[in-house]
Task: inverse folding
């Protein structure tokens, strides 16, 4: 048995000290892949190993060679987000627990334990409560390993295999704008969203990427990109943070024919319409720090919940210690939600100029 906590160090950073030769995973560029390859060589024909490795193991093209190497073992892979809690306290990194059982001269099996978001009070039972999808398959030996956690998810993935969104691409069509950062939900729009920076200057966010699809199918594709099903596909196949061109253009839509998809699009267009809407909202200005800035900003809001003791500070051992009339803690996402009552409270309270000024005293 081999257990290890290997280094997460880029190979180029150690070249001045030493170099390695004849490793299949050398193109991956990180020492942790070399350690896993060496462990695979050292382990007995029926041996076992366990490592904690970066999430990139299952989802980036960079680790293709490592995934090919792992085909020679039975695998159990469970993946963990870094919020609200992380496997290593104080280290914000998305990780996998990789357990393997050598399967030389056998047909290997892969079992996946999903991509978990969890809170600190679950730590003692985290492993115990991890469920696995069994005998998960991949399109190729180096392909992304889907982060499934149940056999139901495996069945859904099989059901949607078929044509991909990339088949409907049209470089001459009007664009759909998709935000490159996802995390908790996908943002796909058919108009350029209004962007206002901290100084109140209007502009355009560079975080939106353009994707162009045939006009006849554009509306249902826009709806699909904003759906919970697409979010699920992204989360099970991505790095848990960014939206890649691959996750959109190679998103499967099932065995539906192009003709049938066009019929759905036509029906959709008769019943729904999309239009861009810009709302001009007055933003009062004040003099602060020798310059004119928006009166109410995210910094102002932070000062408000601190002043009125509405929620605990970040990292509090008891995140649930909120004033429930105004704020609740979201355990799943590890953040706080504010109620309509909180908005009404602030509107009434901050009408008083002296009260507002006290926030910056």
Result:
């Amino acid at each position: 048995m081999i257990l290890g906590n290997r280094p997460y160090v880029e190979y180029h950073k150690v070249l001045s000290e030493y170099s390695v030769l004849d490793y299949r995973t050398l193109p991956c560029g990180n020492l942790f892949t070399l350690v896993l390859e060496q462990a695979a060589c050292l382990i007995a024909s029926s041996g076992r190993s366990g490592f904690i490795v970066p999430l990139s193991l299952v989802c980036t093209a960079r680790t293709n060679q490592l995934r090919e190497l792992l085909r020679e073992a039975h695998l159990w892979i469970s993946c963990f987000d870094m919020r609200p809690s992380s496997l290593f306290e104080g280290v914000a990194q998305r990780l996998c627990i990789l357990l393997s059982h050598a399967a030389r001269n056998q047909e290997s099996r892969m079992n996946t334990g999903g991509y978990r978001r969890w809170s600190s009070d679950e730590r003692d039972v985290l492993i115990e409560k991890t469920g696995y999808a069994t005998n998960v398959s991949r399109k190729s030996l180096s392909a992304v390993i889907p982060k499934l956690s149940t056999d139901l998810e495996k069945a859904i993935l099989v059901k949607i295999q078929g044509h991909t969104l990339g088949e409907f691409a049209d470089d001459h069509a009007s664009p759909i704008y998709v935000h490159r950062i996802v995390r908790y939900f996908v943002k796909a729009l058919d108009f350029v969203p209004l962007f206002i920076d901290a100084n109140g200057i209007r502009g355009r966010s560079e975080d939106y990427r353009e994707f162009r699809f045939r006009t006849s199918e554009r509306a249902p594709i826009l709806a699909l990109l904003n759906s919970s099903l697409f979010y699920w596909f992204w989360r099970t196949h991505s790095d848990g943070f960014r939206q890649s061109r691959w996750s959109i253009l190679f998103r499967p839509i099932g065995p539906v024919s192009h003709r049938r998809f066009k019929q759905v699009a036509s029906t959709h267009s008769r019943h729904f319409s999309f239009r861009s809407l810009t709302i001009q909202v007055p933003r009062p200005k004040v003099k602060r720090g020798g310059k004119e800035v928006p009166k109410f900003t995210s910094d102002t809001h932070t000062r408000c919940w601190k002043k009125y003791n509405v929620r605990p500070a970040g990292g509090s051992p008891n995140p649930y210690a909120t004033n429930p009339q105004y704020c609740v803690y979201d355990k799943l996402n590890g953040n706080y939600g504010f109620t309509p009552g909180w908005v009404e409270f602030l509107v009434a309270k901050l009408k008083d100029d002296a009260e507002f000024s006290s926030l910056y005293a």
In short: The chain has eleven helices and 16 strands. Residues 285-358 form one domain. The mean pLDDT is 87. Residues 258-271 form the longest helix (14 residues).
